[in-house]
Amino acid sequence: MAGLQFLTWLQEHGSPALTAFFRAVTNLGSLEFYMLAIPLIYWLVDKHFGFRFSVFFIFSAYVNSGLKHIFHTERPPRELRLVTQEGYSFPSGHAQGSTAFWGFLALKLKTRLAWIGAAVLIFLISFSRLYLAVHWPIDVLGGVVIGAVLLFAYSFVAETDLLQIPLRAWVLGSVLAAAILYLIHPAGDGPMTAGFLLGALLGYRLELLYVRFQEEATALQNVAKAVLGLAVLFLLRIALKPLVAWLPAGLSVVVRYALLGLWASLGAPFVFTKLGWHKKPSVTMVN
């Protein structure tokens, strides 16, 4: 009851301007935003960091979906909601996702400004879910706490040299991990995250062996990489859906998102390399 009173109080003190603001802010916690941001980090900044980032974030999303289907918490009443949102409520995916995303970046940058920026964005995105009345306060608090716990756990394995794992063990381990995750949680976002994880794991290792993509490029080349890479990523997301529809529902999602993960981690870097979209090494003239 206290949660309902709080949400009602927020709406009583709201305004059209605040509603528009929080509707915009909440989009920073959407799947589409993360599908834009993480591949760009992989393609334009640092593929090794981008790979670790993607695996961590995908696992966080998997945990969030699994917990939602364990607790089966209903969302606030529909008449209060200011945006359309379905599914279970606890924990908040936006709160957990923003904590995982911006917290991971802050851990990488290790600057005071990065931590302040992360805290502000986590607060705004999390609070937007309350203002828009699609989550209870406990959902948001739980999401932030779970995201922070995952970040803390990751800090203990952050320096592990993954490339010491033999290729055969890597491939078998990737397939086995995706299969186990899917079998444990075949509902909600389980198939999507298991598939994307499989594609990212296989694509990253194959790229390192056979493509050796270079992230550093000119500003114009980076713009071209971003436009082409994201355009194909989102076109594949749409086009693959009917192509794999003949498979069982959950398996079709796994296959679809595995192919998306392969494009992001292997296909796009291969195309960029073939097109020469990277800085050429300078040649020093010797007299």
Helicity, as a percent range: over 70%
Give the overall silhouette. globular
The overall strand count is 0
Structural class: mainly alpha
Topology order in helix (H) and strand (E) letters:
HHHHHHHHHHH
Distance from first to last alpha carbon: 82 Å
Biggest beta sheet summary:
none
Describe the oligomeric state of these chains in a short phrase.
Answer: single chain
Low-confidence stretches: none
Total domain count: 2
Topology of this protein?
Layout: H1 2-12, H2 16-26, H3 31-45, H4 47-71, H5 93-109, H6 112-131, H7 137-154, H8 167-184, H9 190-210, H10 219-243, H11 249-274
Quickly describe the structure.
By secondary structure, the chain is mostly helical. It is built from eleven helices and no strands. The protein folds into two domains: 1-160, no CATH class; 166-278, no CATH class.
Outline the structure in words:
- The protein is an all-alpha fold and 287 residues long.
- It has two domains: 1-160, no CATH class; 166-278, no CATH class.
- The chain is built from eleven helices and no strands.
- Helix 2 (16-26) packs across helix 6, helix 4 packs antiparallel against helix 5 and helix 4 (47-71) runs antiparallel to helix 9 (190-210).
- The longest helix is centred in the last third of the chain and has 26 residues, at 249-274.
- It is globular, with a radius of gyration of 20 Å.
